[in-house]
Amino acid sequence: xxxxxxxxxxxxxxxxxxxxxxxxxxxxxxxxxxxxxxxxxxxxxxxxxxxxxxxxxxxxxxxxxxxxxxxxxxxxxxxxxxxxxxxxxxxxxxxxxxxxxxxxxxxxxxxxxxxxxxxxxxxxxxxxxxxxxxxxxxxxxxxxxxxxxxxxxxxxxxxxxxxxxxxxxxxxxxxxxxxxxxxxxxxxxxxxxxxxxxxxxxxxxxxxxxxxxxxxxxxxxxxxxxxxxxxxxxxxxxxxxxxxxxxxxxxxxxxxxxxxxxxxxxxxxxxxxxxxxxxxxxxxxxxxxxxxxxxxxxxxxxxxxxxxxxxxxxxxxxxxxxxxxxxxxxxxxxxxxxxxxxxxxxxxxxxxxxxxxxxxxxxxxxxxxxxxxxxxxxxxxxxxxxxxxxxxxxxxxxxxxxxxxxxxxxxxxxxxxxxxxxxxxxxxxxxxxxxxxxxxxxxxxxxxxxxxxxxxxx
Length: 458
Ligand code: UD1
Ligand code: CA
Known about the structure:
- The chain is an alpha/beta fold.
- The strands form 7 sheets. The protein has an 11-stranded parallel β-sheet with strand order 12-15-18-21-24-27-30-33-36-39-41, with helices on one face. It has a 9-stranded parallel β-sheet with strand order 14-17-20-23-26-29-32-35-38, with no helix packed on it.
- The protein starts with a strand and ends in a 21-residue tail after the last strand.
- Calcium ion (CA) binds next to loops.
């Protein structure tokens, strides 16, 4: 909608978190909570998004980057004082301003949109998003007049016993007529229990001026959870995790045990893929259709094709193609590109390597800084010797190469197409096309020698 602006409050230290990390940067399902808030606002669309930063300003700006403009609140004198800082950027504009706290990551874009719609329908100067809480402790309470309209908000610490019994709470999300907001902010004082400039006082001030104030009551209190401490953080994580899992299940992904499955907010997963218990999918990971992931796999910032299985394995910042089998107990380290129809079996480690279609490393191998062609077979226990103590070196293996068990490929080295490396060979020189390389001590049998060994008889 045109002339819509958003202000996000993110300057507080978050004392109750007892953390070195600034509160709004604490991750929920792998994404800093303030970034959830910004992404939700971006989904509904705002002409300008301004984030108020203070504690950890540099870290917050580095995390959000271009997603927002920033204004510094050098001293944290309260939420009204925080919004006031945005006046330099937004003060004169005509339109509607949505204000959201950086510590309420669960408020859905649909709810923000409903709040804006309600605000416009009511022709209000201010509309507050409220919720009914079973336990309203810690939240501001909504005081309504005899006619049922909102009069003001009272903070927990300023509330009388009677007001503390009110269970309609201020979620910390509002929309305002932009100019009315910045005018009213000038009148907010700090004459209260915390000596702070409270943003919700704007509601009372506008009401006293005879302006129309509205409230939009959300159906779901859990959506409005404000994360002030680690107990609430764990609760937010649980709720967000359930929400993400539900989205994937509705899209056709089977999640055998949603409680034991962690999926990042950005992950994309195809239809008929099955996630078994103990799976953790982090960052911008994409998984195709008809895959089986898990049990117990950890996949970070990676892409996986269709019909691929990843059993009890770790995949980091890599890509894996279609119809490929990984694990159990494989470790795919960053910058690996694995093509289609590949088999990476148990106890195989792959680092910064490219593996062509149809290639197999079925057991106990280490592949580092290597390029393998198509239909290569790497026998059990064979490894690349990529590090000489100072530098890393590359191994290049062509198509249709057979590497027998327990071979050492000492890099830098190239093995050309269709060659055959005999088991136990230490390859130190390049191997030409279609050659057999064999480099191992010849076996000698000493007949009847055992009697000289003085072995104890049972
Ligand atoms: C606030 C509301 C309360 C509401 C609750 C909802 C006020 C006075 N109280 O309380 O009515 O029920 O949110 O979760 O607004 N911040 C700044 N600068 C400041 C102070 C705070 O940027 O000077 C930021 C914080 O980083 C935080 C947000 O504003 O993201 C809310 O501040 P917080 O201290 O958590 O307010 P609450 O006590 O939760
Ligand atoms: Ca809060």
